[in-house]
Amino acid sequence: MTDQVKIMILSGVREQGKDMFAVQVNDEIFVLDAGLKYPDSTLFGIDLVIPDLEFYEEYGDQVVGIFLTHGHADSIGALPYILRQYDIPVFGSQLTVELAKITVKRENKKIKNSLFHVIDADTEIEFKHADISFFQTTHSIPDSLGIDVHTPAGEVVYTGDFKFDPSAAPKYRTDLDRLAEISQKKVLALLSDSSNAEAVLPNVAEQEIGDYVTNVFRNAAGRVIVAAKASNLMRIQEVLNAAHHTGRRVLLTGRDVAKIVRTAMDLGYLQVPKGLLLRVKDLKETPDHKTVILETGQMGEPLNSLQKMAKKSHSMITIHEGDLVFIATTPSHSVETMVAQTSDLVYSAGGTVIELGRAKNTSGHATGRDLQLLIDILKPQFLIPVIGEYRLLEVHRDLAIRAGLKKENIFITKNGDCLNYDFQQKQFYLTAPVPGEDIMIDGSGIGDVGNIVLRDREVLSDDGIFIAVVTIDRRKKKIIAQPQVTSRGFVYIKANRQLMADSIELIKNTIKNNFEHKKFDWTEIKQDVRNDLERFLYRKTNRRPVVLPVVMEVNQNRHRAMQNRNTKNASGNDSDRRAVDVNKAGQRIVKKD
């Protein structure tokens, strides 16, 4: 049998987050990461976005495992929705697996623990057609690993989120010796993190950041409220160390940080001195200058919680005069406006703000120099930039060309692309795509909100909704009752009575015209009402609300019969008065008075 090697871009390119890639070797598929991303302001009401689960519907019987690089949501967040339907083995480091279990159990209490397998940087797993091994990487969470898939065509290396920092603690340090060892095996393709490719300045050493955090705490006169992501354990360790060195105690707020910190403590990945943690009931008795509040917010996103504190709507904490808010996470470009709004609210409440990202050049992702260094070490034949928006993939490509790679051996992909390796031509080429659409999570619904629903939500948010209700008798070809109109988010009804009255007349004329010139059809009569109202309302207001026509039918013969019965009831011939409506299917709906 001729060997086959494919690289599938399931998700995680031309966007930030939602990482999921796959390598197929003959009839075995190895999935690399299964993450989510948080929605931006254009996804109205959406809670989360995950990769296309249709991939598992089509290829699930070939997937031998999901291999995780680290414990952040962009790597593990889609697992609850995958494992809800498919029993696929999951492999990751000890901390990554424990955090994955917490994530999965949030959505599915009956998760099978037997699906999770703990590996480490020294593990090598032999499958029928390929071997999987790992190497330690530096990221903002310990136990982060890169993945090496040994295929008949050479090594396919996936970095996950990574950077180089020789000063990092041993649990966070990239294993350069292991990378050099992999390079000796002939690296066919490198899938490398592009998130910070634009950075021209080197990342500040974490040791320097730890000293800076300690100085911030030491110079603060009152409480320090730290905003950080719950899963950024490197930063949380620095906060705990700074509090200990400055004689402060730390209150953990939020379910996420409590679970993650407790798990990391139990596994020995966080060192917390005895007596450092503070209970809520002890907060009032602790002086402000001895207090640190570590806030991560819901799902590890702290900015919303900070705004609630500033507005005095937070369940536990209110920002007051003398508080210092220390934003210890480096926000993405998409939330910079929200950071500025949050800072304004904090200052209005009497506090001050320090942003670590403005004071120090820090990131958990590789700079341009780091990416070139990795290429120089591994010397891959092909490069596939991943994990980043489109411009970042382009920057990564340019950096690789300057590092010596041929332009034709670098692939800028999109979600759903599938690259098949030709053993004779020794080249990758695009083949039939794989499922690569977004699935949006809204409440308990998975994938039931699509582009049409989002477009309607956008229109509703812009111009509101206009509802028209009319009752007709199609046999008599007449309107039985005066049409009723109302709106929400469109115009103030009391100040626009003439507009509403004109709309009612328009509805009457539209239905009359439909009766006179067209054969009766429910869909067509509603469409006529909608079209005429849309044109009329735009002409009058220059707005385009969602127009919702509701056309109901009454059978006039039944209506008269019921009127006669009601007349008898009113004269005392029948003590049980009833109002009967007949819908278009001919069913009788009886309501007792």
TrEMBL record:
It is found in: Cytoplasm. The keyword Acyltransferase does not apply. The keyword Hydrolase applies. Residues 557-593 are annotated as: Disordered. Its EC number is 3.1.-.-. It holds the Pfam family RNase_J_b_CASP. Homodimer, may be a subunit of the RNA degradosome. This is Ribonuclease J. It comes from Lactobacillus xylocopicola. The gene is rnj_2.
